[in-house]
């Protein structure tokens, strides 16, 4: 790579120019560049050595995922505001995961006075984050972004945990489409109108901390929100998500990263029964 090209890429990364194309650049789409093989040449422990642009995967101090330990959290009362809308969406097999992308204004979440529009969702199994050391069977990430250059942290990801149980109704709607793209990287399926509200991610309690993307380039400055309410998913649904991606990504969860004295906040509002 020419020096001038590298400098330009670095500047763009620092500026977080998050239109639809820039989010794609932030999360690596070509899984041939990395994998999840433990001890492999392209596995998680090697991500930071594969490219200079991925150095944060090795040297970053605020990396994700981490463990949410109740012994370390600060409890705060502050309701989260979500405003999602039905919109046309496309399902894609990215090789290392299955991604659902909305095309246009699918609504947003409001964090510290800033609106973060919803862009895409994808699944990891098992879960990447843990709660008090417990790892769940699946974790859904809803990726939000703002194009406001005056905002320091421009990516916000909401995480939802799942344990084995009754089938997830939202995933049930996608099963046929996912089945049709097994081992077909870069395959797309037009889904028509998908309502993000159907994911049912409402929770009265959630963790929040500052972290990073969990895939290369492991960009830091990501606002993480993790719902404490655990949903259910069937074994067949988890199995299908694993079969659809390439073999080395069947368990596509990055190992836990050091907390490095970061603050973890537990937000409460209303009934705390969930």
Automatic annotation (TrEMBL):
Keywords: Lyase, Metal-binding, Signal, Zinc
Cofactor needs: Zn(2+)
Superkingdom of origin: Eukaryota
Stored CDD domains: alpha_CA_prokaryotic_like (cd03124)
UniProt-listed SUPFAM superfamilies: Carbonic anhydrase (SSF51069)
All residue ranges annotated as the Alpha-carbonic anhydrase domain in the record: 32-268
Signal sequence segment: 1-25
Molecular-function annotations in GO: carbonate dehydratase activity; zinc ion binding
Record-given protein name: Carbonic anhydrase
Protein species of origin: Forsythia ovata
